[in-house]
Structure formats: structure tokens, C-alpha cells
Automatic annotation (TrEMBL):
Residues annotated as transmembrane: 32-54, 163-188, 195-213
Highest taxon listed in the record's lineage: Bacteria
A Pfam family it matches: PepSY_TM_like_2
InterPro entries linked: PepSY_TM-like_2
UniProt keywords, alphabetically: Membrane, Transmembrane, Transmembrane helix
Identification of the protein by name: Peptidase
Amino acid sequence: MRPTNEPVKSAAGPADKSKVWRKRTAAWSRWLHLYLSMLSFLVVLFFAVTGLTLNHVEWFDGQQTERKATGTLPAAWVNTPDTAAIKKLQVVERLRQNYHVQGSVSDFIVEDDQCAVSFKGPGYSADAFINRHDGTIKLTEQRQGLVAVLNDLHKGRDSGAKWSWVIDVSAGFLTLVSLSGLAMLFFLKNKRANGLLVALVGGALCYLLYALWVP
């Protein structure tokens, strides 16, 4: 068998491994950026729109509605010298059942002559004042409108622990979208320098606006 002049193939060297790593990193960056962007699209839209409405709340004045109601509950629930014996749970459930109040209980204040119960939710509040002597109720409920609901969801105000978790997850997604986009830029040789320059200029511009316009 005659010897061949073909070069003997050797194992991949460090340069080949580095090239493979770059290709895989670029592919994963594109994949992450594409699908996370699609997954986060509505999140970005929500926070963009509500960022605008938060900055111009005066555009939506006049959407607030107010409802007043009166009633009674068993005086024995609140008319007791021992304030620890006041039936707070029953009081709250009666208000929810009979007056359809929403949100979570933010305050239950016991005073000498009355109990004050406050409910808070996104764009919503309700305050009930209960006479401790005879159990009469005076309720005031305020609804701020749809835009106020969205604004409070943006801020995570009066929206509960589960919605706070949603905001945290959304922030994580948007961070990954930003980082994967930046990683992609490093693999685009023709646009890398200009892209990084634009990013630096954008960051410097934001800082300049902050330094000049924020008291």
C-alpha cells in the first residue's frame, strides 16, 4: 500500500475550540434575544404606555367615581370593652358580602367610639366607619378609573405580593433581553464599533439630561 501525501488530521486546537465557542455563544444570544423579546413584547408595551400615563396623570382627571352607603352590623361584634375581642374577621367579611368592597385590608383602626376599616387595591379604595355603640356603618368607596388601575399595577401599589412577583419576573426577562442583545452586538463585526458607540452616547445623553434637568 503506497503512502499518501495527504496531511494527517490532528485534534482540534485551542483556536478551533475558541471559534466553536464563539459560534455557539452567538447562536444562543440570537435565540435568547429573539424568543425573550417575543415573550416580553406585551410587558414592554405595558410599561411603556403606563410610563407615559404616569407622567401625565392630569390627562385623565375626572375618571374618579364615588359611592356612599350606610347599613348596620351586629353591635356585639364591636361593642366590647376588650378591643382584642372585636370580631374583625366577621366585620371585614360582612363588608365584602353586603357592600361588595374589593382590595385587601390596609387598616383596621379601633378607636373609643368607632372602628375604621380601609381597603386598598389598584385604582381603588374603600373606607368604612363603624359606630361601636350601635354597629351602624358609613361606607365611602372610590374608583379612580382604568388608567389609575394600570398606573398602580405599573408601580406595584396596593396590588399584592403575587403581582410584585410578576414585576420581578418581568424585570428579569427585560434584563435578559438587554444583555442578550448586547452579546449579539459583539458578534456583528461590521456593526460592533458603531453599535457600542451609539450605546455609550445614549448612556451619556441620559446622564446629561439627568444632570441638567433634575433638581
